[in-house]
Amino acid sequence: MTGPTMTDFAGNQQIIEITYLIASALFILSLKWMSSPTTAQRGVRAGEIGMALAIAGTLLHHGIIDYKWIAIALVLGTIIGIPLGLVKMTAVPQRTALSHAFGAFCVTLVGTAEFYLRTPDVPRFMMSVLSMEVILGSLTFTGSLMAAGKLQELLPQRPLTYKGQNVVNLSLLALSLAVAVYLVIHPGARQLFPFMLGIPLLFGVLMIVPIGGADMPTVISLLNSYAGLSAAAMGFVLDSKLLIVAGALDGSSGLILSVIMSKAMNRSFTNVLFGAFGQVQSAAAIGQEAKPVRSATAEEAAGILSAANKVVIVPGYGMAVAQAQHKVRELFDALSKRGVDVRFAIHPVAGRMPGHMNVLLAEADIPYDRLMDMDDINGEFPQTDVALVIGANDVTNPAARTDASSPIYGMPILDVDKARTVMVIKRSMSPGFAGIDNPLYYLDKTLMLFGDAKSFVNNIVRELSGGHG
Amino acid sequence: MSSALINGLFVFMLAAFIGFEVIRRISPLLHTPLMSLTNALDAIAVVGAIILVGEHKSRLSFILGMLAVIAATSNVVGGFLITDRMLKMFKSSRPTKP
After folding, report:
1. Does the annotation count A66 as an active-site position?
2. What is the pLDDT of residue A390?
3. What ipTM does this complex have?
4. Distance (Å) from the C-alpha of residue B27 to the closest C-alpha of chain A?
5. pTM for the whole thing?
């Protein structure tokens, strides 16, 4: 009887490995197809099929004796997952942070279970990757929860700093690494495991406390990378190549996005993590005096816009906060109908996470080929008749190019000031996120349109349709 | 060093290079759906958790495994769902070919 059973095991094991191999290939294809909006949906299908195959393959695993509870857990997870897939587009950043937390939670729990199943006889290498899995997983878990809380405005968005903060944080990290090293050498010291789990959990919280709202795009990307790396570490522990592949893909994706985000803000990782951006406000605000600005009404703005050939709209997060994207779409339609060439200039950090602004505009039915990256549009501002800034501030600030004393000096910006006419919709003259005054507003060619973004754009649209309709 | 470790490191190295090359080419237009997609793919960690639940080696590993399967499954379902919703919103102004 032993013979056939053994072959069964081996046969099953081969089928499982083959489903994992196909799933890995599908995951890579899935990301490859994400490179263009025309193939991206195919990419999602590929990912779904790969996932379904891998889960089905896993169920053939010979050690599984109990399917009932697996089914229950899968159903419960689906029930929680569906509402998380149906959130509003403005809430996508906090949803993403929350799902980093869930992913890291899963990895940490599996790591903990494996530790207690395998100790005290664990080879050193196994214990090192297990420690990495648990440390990265737990700090990503609490860090992502904190980020989600800040983005959802359950927690204060302002960076909270105190003296010696970096020393405290780095000591905690060092302490958890020391515990990990001790466990690698003495895997029998199981009583130390709670420290290796608990200290990074605390570190994750403290790591996000000093980080302000403006840095969230970088932080979310970095947490994405950590979540991927912790999953890859779990792949080493379980000797699963599929998991190593998925973790490496996710880890490199997060890393690339965080590099793009920190470049777009002209800051290094260390600066984001240890810098606390919100510190410059007070100094910048003092130097402010009442300088003359030119303002215009919706009627005047509509006149200038309809006489233009080329218009570039520069949306910022303020536009999304005011829920003005659908009105902006009406403006886009009204101007396009008159033969005006309208495009959108999207700064990499225009939203709360990488690419967020593109999603918000696509949701408002603005065609994606009208949405331009910073690098593609910047050369075109000198030929642009009107640049219309809606709810963006620091990313249009020419001081980043010219004023070496400015806190944002060196940050790549949209060269809005090179357009022939600049119009800025803004509630008041108060400074933006980073609290820095914007010289753009005092240029002779700049018209300030004071008011709420949504109602002001609405008034322009009404003027455009009324005047010539 | 075991051969499993070396094999694993090879796989990791190659996958990381593929990841860098493939993801570098993705336009900023799609960075948000990219992140929600990688999130869903990363939830493949569910396979490790399924085995913990199914093998039922200890009460602790079973309970932790259950929670892990629930968390990862919600990422799979939610991640694919929202990525799909976002991508459906991206439309071109050029008429699509019939």
Report:
1. no
2. 94
3. 0.94
4. 6
5. 0.90
